[in-house]
Write a structure and sequence with these properties.
The complex is a heterodimer of chains A (481) and B (486).
Chain A (H helix, E strand, L loop, with lengths): L4 E12 L38 H13 L3 E2 L2 E2 L1 E5 L9 E5 L5 E9 L5 E13 L3 E3 L8 E3 L6 E7 L6 H17 L12 E11 L9 E6 L2 H20 L7 E6 L4 E7 L9 E2 L6 E2 L2 H9 L5 H12 L3 H8 L2 H14 L3 H19 L10 H12 L5 H12 L5 H8 L7 H14 L1 H8 L5 H12 L6 H12 L3
Parallel strand pairs in A: 12-13
Antiparallel strand pairs in A: 1-10, 1-11, 2-6, 3-16, 4-5, 4-15, 6-7, 7-10, 8-9, 11-12, 13-14
Chain B lengths: L7 H9 L5 H19 L2 E4 L1 H17 L9 E5 L26 H8 L3 E6 L33 H8 L6 E4 L6 H7 L2 E4 L20 E5 L2 H11 L29 E5 L9 H16 L3 E5 L7 H16 L18 H12 L2 H14 L5 H24 L2 E5 L15 H5 L6 H6 L3 E9 L2 E8 L5 H14 L12
Parallel strand pairs in B: 2-3, 7-8, 7-9
Antiparallel strand pairs in B: 1-3, 4-6, 5-6, 5-10, 9-11, 10-11
The chains are: A alpha+beta (481), B alpha/beta (486).
């Protein structure tokens, strides 16, 4: 009898907060600078220097807490996590341990079958990032780049509520959307601004107690997370079914070999000797500060999707796709605004042609060569019957390539739709005259040939004839006098 | 001209009256250092060039009429304060090559007040010690008796001022490191309220206890220097943002009606007879000035020493992790790999007492021991705090001895850390509770000075300075010089 397994996953997401300066010093947080130029005496851990908390990082953490319905701690505490490593200048990382700033939040994810699931957020705490060790091109030596040291991170710890790699991805994407909506993280996974550790265990379905977990460190792409978790699930099940047991350990994912490998065992784990950092007073937040942040929160993705479904008559699915990124949703709303409605048409174009072209050219919404107003200008010509949807695609392509506005392109290429009944009738008459055999077959009952005649008429008009009129007139004229 | 027979305040007055220049005064002290530093070992670094430049600038300030009470007055800084471009060793081999790239806030502010930096004074390694014997640069000798310790950890500052190699000096006090050496060398040693003076640029020992202060010849000098050092600093999150009063203006306050609490626990076993007698005589003196003496008990105060020796090492074990041989400080020769770099750099760079405390601190923070040691110590710390709070509900200040005995012989306690630690038994409480406290000279026992300690509630610096000053108006213990340096 084969046993049914259940996977239990919890994620620890590290979101780099989009502050201009570091969490405890005035150095810049900009990515990609020459090594160590963005490290001042505080970042270097010089004797005598002291940390001063960045207020903006606190505001961003509170933003996240409010957006996930979490409890914002009126008093939270910074602690020192002690361990030696060359890219950790002070020999300890300032983090929050026993009293984090955010506790007990939730987000809702949509599963593959369309069902909704609530995922608990145990806590989110502020901490500083470490620097980077560089091992390439330095011979026997290693280099240290401390530009990243002291960059503010929000570590978001989920409850072990996720039951598959797919759910983990859905959750991660949800948090990714959320932090970008809140403009507290740029979400750039390649630069490491948004990454996660996954705690994975398996158990027999129906059991309450958790299996022994392994932690997979530093996953920085959605694809890797999925592959790493699935590998890990298979590995653990195989191990147990083979009579062995899972050992609690930290593992690393190797994307080249598509496997996870042990990094250190529980026994080798550091004793971090956490204790409250005496250089920083407990962080006390007053109600006004929190309320000010609450009142400045933007509309959140779920609220926006709900509004699009309710007020715009979009399907929940479409509303979800459009609101997955704040920029895309804003673009869609701008199109609708300029167009004065036509929400479904706008949604189809934004999700369809626009998104397709953006993907093809690897561009962000903000970089689209066709802006929202210009797209609305094009769609207006569909709405008023000047061009058909098909012609519109041609015009859009020309606009994308940089050829001015929809109207100018329609004009210069003579793409105006033919709506003159007499003109269309003339073409239909010519088509019928040129296809006597098909006409006879149609009249004897081969209804399918109607499409053939439509095609011939459109071909003859270069696609410019109004499709609705073509249908109506064809039906009349094919029926005979 | 004998500026070494003058207090800092007196030198300042003479400078502004045009009796002499800062350059002359500075040269005078530099010459004294030249002659006397070798046997005393009070200075790790003398900075004649910086001193002469500072003096020149001060003379110009005075000439312009911009001089304050301290403009042109020389001073020495404990070698724990970072000084731009100058060795800042912290008494350790670990930092014996460390040229600080910036000035500590304390240094910056005193320089801005026109003071002249003569050099950097010897100290117990990383301020860990009560005798100045743990310094990588060797022990400091007590100017009153060269076979005796000057106390610690600010022993170099104490010896420098006691021998009048500098009119005044900065110090730091984590468990008594200003007050104990002040008592043992006949000085006025003031430790302000925690948060009153910025810790920025002060190499950290135990961050929740460390506080900068001053070793001076008189309460008046302490008031002037403290006033120039104190105040909010945005670079230190624990520095307190309340205005700094004019400390010198508070000096004339009468002692009439002052309620003085006599801490019963400070007069028990371990207090040497002569020291006890001198302190009691001083208390009688305050009664004679119109103060009321109230005997009271702080029952948790005897737990100060064990509490301190959990909290301070815990913080130091973490604070000293940055000394890893990677970015600054001592690095071992030819490290084989990372572990070897860490082990040998730290093994060679730190002395025995520092290692002892790092190990103790690492232990008390370890998984499984944290609750039993660190957490419990924090709880006891709040109890001690509560004891003081209760006491200050009844009295204005607390008084007692600063140390159990006068200065002891160099080498006498060096192999017995527990006996050494008990030297701070009367001073540690104020650090645990973050209270201001001052030690003032109150007598000589067999030719060695002893101190009266006055502890006040948070931010009662003025009250303490007034009490110290009132005593100094009545007595001349603070005017006595070590015979060899008169």
């Amino acid at each position: 009898m084969s046993i049914e397994w259940e996977t239990v996953i919890g994620l620890e997401i590290h979101a780099q907060l989009a502050t201009r300066s570091k969490i405890f010093s005035g150095s810049s947080t900009a990515y990609g600078a020459t090594p160590n130029v963005q490290a001042n005496l505080v970042d270097l851990g010089y004797p005598g220097v002291l940390p001063v908390l960045n207020r903006e990082a606190v505001r961003m953490a509170v933003c996240f807490g409010l957006a996930t319905g979490a409890t914002i701690a009126r008093r939270s505490i910074f602690a020192r996590k002690n361990y030696f490593y060359p890219d950790l200048p002070k020999g300890y990382q300032i983090s929050q341990y026993e009293r984090p700033i955010v506790e007990d939040g939730t987000v809702e994810i949509v599963l593959d079958d369309g069902a909704h699931k609530t995922i608990g957020i145990t806590r989110a705490h502020l901490e500083e990032d470490a620097g980077k060790s560089l091992h390439e091109g330095l011979g026997r030596h290693s280099g240290i780049d401390l530009n990243r040291a002291g960059t503010p991170l929000l570590e978001i710890v989920s409850e072990p509520d996720l039951r598959s790699a797919r759910e983990a991805i859905a959750y991660m994407k949800k948090i990714h959307t959320l932090v970008r909506y809140l403009e507290i993280c740029d979400g750039n996974m390649q630069e490491g601004s948004f990454r996660c550790d996954a705690n994975v265990s398996v158990r027999h379905k129906g059991r309450h107690e958790y299996g022994t977990r392994c932690e997979i460190k530093n996953l920085n792409s959605f694809r890797f997370i999925e592959r790493a978790i699935n590998y890990e699930i298979a590995r653990q099940i195989e191990l147990i079914e083979g009579g062995g047991s899972v050992v609690q350990e930290t593992r690393l994912f190797d994307p080249d070999r598509n496997e996870t490998r042990p990094m250190r065992s529980k026994e080798e784990a550091n004793d971090y000797r956490y204790f409250p950092d005496p250089d920083l007073l407990p962080l006390a937040l007053d109600g006004d500060f929190i309320e000010q942040i609450r009142s400045a929160l933007p509309e959140l993705p779920d609220q926006k999707a709900e509004r699009f479904a309710r007020e715009h008559g979009l399907s929940r699915y479409d509303a979800g796709v459009l609101t997955a990124s704040r920029e895309l949703a804003d673009f869609y709303e701008l199109v609708v605004g300029s167009l004065g409605g036509e929400t479904k048409l706008a949604a189809n174009w934004v999700m369809g042609d626009l998104s397709g072209f953006l993907n093809r050219d690897n561009l962000e919404v903000g970089q689209s060569p066709v802006g929202a107003k210009r797209l609305a200008g094009l769609l207006a010509r569909i709405v008023d019957g000047t061009i058909s949807g098909k012609i519109a695609k041609e015009v859009f392509e020309a606009m994308w390539a940089g050829q001015s506005d929809a109207d100018a392109i329609i004009d210069s290429k003579g793409l105006w739709q033919i709506t003159d009944t007499a003109a269309i009738e003339r073409v239909i008459a010519e088509v019928i005259a040129a296809s006597p055999a098909q006409l006879a077959d149609f009249r004897s009952g081969k209804d399918k040939l109607f499409g053939f005649f439509v095609g011939q008429v459109m071909k003859a008009t270069g696609g410019k004839a109004n499709p609705a009129q073509v249908n109506e007139l064809l039906r009349k004229m094919l029926a005979g006098p | 001209m004998n500026p070494h027979l003058m207090t800092a305040a007196e030198i300042g007055r003479g400078l502004r009256a045009g009796k002499y220049t800062s350059i002359e005064v500075t040269r005078h002290f530099l010459e004294r250092i030249d002659r006397a530093n070798k046997p005393l070992n009070a200075f790790v670094t003398v900075t004649p060039e910086r001193a002469m430049a500072d003096a020149k600038r001060a003379d110009a300030m005075i000439a312009r009429g911009d001089g304050g009470p301290l403009t042109g007055v020389p001073l020495a800084h404990k070698d724990i304060f970072c000084t731009d471009g100058v060795l800042t060793s912290c008494g350790s081999r670990m930092l014996s090559n460390f040229i600080a790239p910036y000035d500590a806030t304390v240094v910056e502010r005193l320089t801005a007040a026109g003071m002249v930096t003569l050099g950097k004074t010897n100290m117990d390694e990383f301020a860990m010690g009560s005798s100045n014997e743990t310094s990588w640069y060797g022990p400091v000798r007590n100017p009153w008796d060269g076979t005796k310790v000057p106390g610690g950890s600010s022993g170099g500052s104490a010896a420098a001022v006691a021998a009048r190699l500098a009119p005044v000096a900065t110090g730091t006090d984590t468990g008594g490191s200003i007050r104990q050496p002040a008592a043992l060398t006949g000085l006025t040693g003031f430790k302000p309220t925690y948060g009153r003076v910025s810790r920025y640029g002060m190499v950290a020992f135990a961050s929740s206890l460390d506080q900068a202060g001053v070793l001076a010849q008189s309460a008046e000098d302490a008031a002037l220097v403290l006033g120039a050092m104190a105040g909010h600093d945005a670079r230190d999150s624990t520095s307190v943002d309340t205005p700094v009063p004019d400390y010198a203006a508070s000096l004339g306050r009468s002692m009439k009606g002052l309620r003085i609490g006599i801490i019963r626990e400070f007069f028990g076993e371990g207090l040497e007879d002569g020291t006890g007698r001198a302190v009691k005589t001083a208390l009688d003196g305050y009664r004679a000035m119109g103060a009321t003496l109230v005997e009271l008990s702080l029952p948790n105060l005897p737990l100060s020493v064990p509490t301190y020796y959990v909290v301070a090492p815990a913080e130091c074990s973490s604070n000293l992790s940055r000394f890893d041989g990677v970015r600054f400080g001592h690095r071992c020769a030819e490290p084989r790999d990372l572990m070897d770099l860490y082990r040998r750099s730290r093994g060679e760079g730190f002395g025995a007492e520092v290692k002892r405390r790092i190990m103790t601190g690492t232990y008390v923070l370890s998984a499984g021991y944290y609750d039993a040691y660190y957490l419990k110590a924090q709880k006891v710390r709040s109890l001690i705090n509560a004891d003081f709070k209760r006491a200050f509900g009844e009295v204005d200040v607390l008084m007692g001895p600063t140390t159990p005995t006068p200065a002891f012989a160099i080498g006498a306690k060096v192999d017995d850390p527990i006996t050494m630690y008990l030297n701070d038994i009367y001073t540690i409480g104020a650090n645990l509770a973050g209270l201001p406290a001052v030690s003032v000279p109150c007598g000589l026992v067999d030719g060695l000075p002893v101190g009266l300690q006055i502890i006040g509630p948070h931010f009662a610096e003025e009250r303490l300075l007034a009490a110290a000053h009132a005593w100094q108006l009545e007595t001349d213990w603070h005017r006595k010089l070590p015979p060899l340096f008169a």
